[in-house]
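Example record used in the benchmark description.
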Amino acid sequence: MELSGGASLSAGFHDQLMMLERKGRRRRLMLAGGHDFASNDYLALASSAELKTAIVEALSRGVPVGAGASRLLRGNHIEHELLEEEAAIFFGSQSSLFFSSGFAANSTLLSTLPQRGDIIIHDELVHASSREGIRLARAPAIAARHNDADAFADALAAWRRGGGRGAPWLVAESLYSMDGDVAPLDDLLRLAGAFDGFLIIDEAHATGLFGPGGRGLAAGMDGRENVITVRTCGKALGCEGALVCCPATIRDFLINRGRPFIFSTAPSPLMAAAVRAALRMLDEDCGRRQQLQDLAAFAADCLEPLGASGHGTQILPLIVGEDAPTMALARKLQAQGFDVRGIRPPTVPDHSARLRISISLNVDRRAIAALGAALGEALA
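Model output (structure tokens):
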């Protein structure tokens, strides 16, 4: 039996897609191809022999592919618990909690921990995962100017003067994924302490790359009563999921009140085994971090003269401005064998569409130099 009006059910969605098309903002999936200047697999661990071996060994000792239930039902596995114990030791925190993704971790933290009467003050460029948690939070939120500790301080002082008596929650990324710049973490930590607040640091793009043993830009801050860090496992660690490193009481509260954690099937125990192996690789360090730093410095020498914004990290954005020319430039480079992706609003602010050039050990100096030559020709 044919249902009447079926064609009109999706008409509104089609119209919205056409609006995105006209603006040059309609997204489409595309397969990876060419030299990798787009992924976050910074240390090239995702396809490494070491992680493949770790997976095979885990399978051989009976680690299941799927968890089969949430952690609070029957999905809690010894691999989850071993990972969390080892991660807490590795990063120097009281405890850690494994989530299926960085998005799940950030959105759970901010939708669960800030209470009524508290305030959330976040960098204006924090990731969409943090913004999702803020959208669902019980506490109001204020956006502070990017990487401006004084703006955080001013917002805190104004809130206190206005009668704010709860706990402030300061939210920042240590290394911003679309700009490649680094947050003033020491200043934010001092502010959190001065105002009896908490500091949440998203270490997604710093974990594995910076700090002693790849412990991140927030290394040394873990273990404090008012610091929570998120270590994504799907970037430099080459795996999947995210570790929230936090005081034990915070971990217990998330287990009891964090709805995405409570009601989601647990991450794969096999993936937990892989992350354990990745952390061991960081501890052993086979020179990958230094190799990446050298490669990023070479890329900066090649690409900064062409307009890329270098901040001494592995992410070099080249801001074009408007959507259509950005995507046209990306397509031109892709056609020449360079997987460079265009990033458009709302991922980045209006009129700041850009090429996000990501340097990883999946490329070498020859590929970087060739990208520089192709980019220079395309911009001429």
